Amino acid sequence: MDDSDEALFRAYAGGDEAAFVRLLERYRNRVAHLVRCRLGPRSLWVEDVAQDVFVQVHRGARRFEGRSSFKTWLYAIALRVCRDHRRRQRTAADRSAIEFEEGPGLAALPDLSLDPLQSLVRGERSALVRAAVERLGPAHRTVLQLRDGEDMSYEEIARLLAVPVGTVRSRLHNARAALARELARCLTR
Amino acid sequence: MPYEVKGMDCRNAFELLSADLDGELTRSETEALHLHLGGCAHCARRRSLLEITRQAYRSIGAEPVSTGFADAVMRRVRRRAGVRWWLPAAAAIAALVAVALLREPGTPPRIAAKRPVPSDSSSAHRPGLTEGRMGTAADCGLPGAAVCVLDTPCGNGECSPVLPRPRGI
């Protein structure tokens, strides 16, 4: 049997609930991770919002036309649900983070080398990188996750975020530079 | 020390480094950048810094959600599906009950809202009418009249029947 996302979703649209469960199991951690990128790592709403995403997918099954991949469609729903949630819960801290991220110019890189990062054991390295990612703003975390976590092309990310490809390029560059700075800061502590 | 080769200085090169790692540059951009990197240790070091950062991010996976996550989603999905099935049925039943309650036994359905009663009920009727006489639409001249003093409805749909007043009172 074809195990692709699209085949499973077609089966689900035809009434096969088990196909929906398989998609849910395939994407639950990744959707929750994307939601965490948007809402912030300490948000208490991550799992609730991630559940909302799958409920929306279920409700909108008939609207999926197959013009994009299932993954792109799913993440578009996830970003929309996060946006609605944030609109309801918006705080002054969130607003200042967004303004900072969208500022002009490309972010500078740290002078410090990140070589010590390579020598850390896997668990330590993961904890350190997570701590550094947590210090980034939602726009940077999101673009990093879509590119380096999900391997999406710049074109796909641009469509998903409704921004020009050039914006994806500079935002991703700024995000990596910001992450490099945070990693350097974590390493020198 | 700033380094420039074929119009590509360090600033331009820096802006392209991240996209170069992702293979998202055009062929000419890639050629110009790599020419620059071949002669600029500073930019080459910056590129390796971004590469380490990229690898570091890729090394962390998504944290697992709680064990009850999928069950919770399926419960919500099934609850929604249940609601979707019985909601129109419940609405239809409620509408039927409402119609049955409005309809008195032995009378035709009368759903039109009652109109306000004029403060002076005598002004609702034309002078010269006498009690006990059969009313007609023409008798009940005021459109706002809700209650006719005649002993039968006038028939224009505006009046309600009232019992004739006992004579002598």
Provide a concise account of the structure shown.
The complex is a heterodimer of chains A (189) and B (169). With 189 residues, chain A is mainly alpha-helical.
Number of helices of chain B: 4
What proportion of the residues of chain B form beta strands (DSSP E)? under 5%
Spatial gap, N to C terminus of chain B: 118 Å
Largest interface: A-B, 46 and 32 residues
Give a verbal description of the structure:
The complex is a heterodimer of chains A (189) and B (169). Chain A is mainly α and 189 residues long. Helix content of chain A is 73%, strand content 0%. Chain A contains ten helices and no strands. In chain A, helix 8 (138-149) packs across helix 10. The radius of gyration of chain A is 18 Å and the shape is elongated. By secondary structure, chain B is mainly α. Chain B contains four helices and no strands. Chain B has helices at 10-21, 27-39, 41-59, 69-102. Classes of the chains: A mainly alpha (189), B mainly alpha (169). The A-B interface holds A 20-21, 24-25, 28-30, 32-33, 36, 47, 50-51, 54-55, 58-59, 106, 109-110, 113-115, 117-118, 122, 125-126, 129-130, 133, 144, 147-149, 153-154, 169-170, 172-173, 176-177, 179-180, 183 and B 14-15, 17-19, 22, 24, 46, 49-50, 52-54, 56-66, 69-70, 72-74, 76-77, 80.
Secondary structure: elements and pairs:
The complex is a heterodimer of chains A (about 190) and B (about 170).
Chain A: H1 5-13, H2 17-39, H3 46-59, H4 70-89, H5 92-101, H6 115-119, H7 122-134, H8 138-149, H9 154-161, H10 165-188
Helix pairs in contact in A: 1-2, 2-3, 2-4, 2-8, 3-4, 7-10, 8-10, 9-10
Chain B: H1 10-21, H2 27-39, H3 41-59, H4 69-102
Helix pairs in contact in B: 1-2, 1-3, 2-3
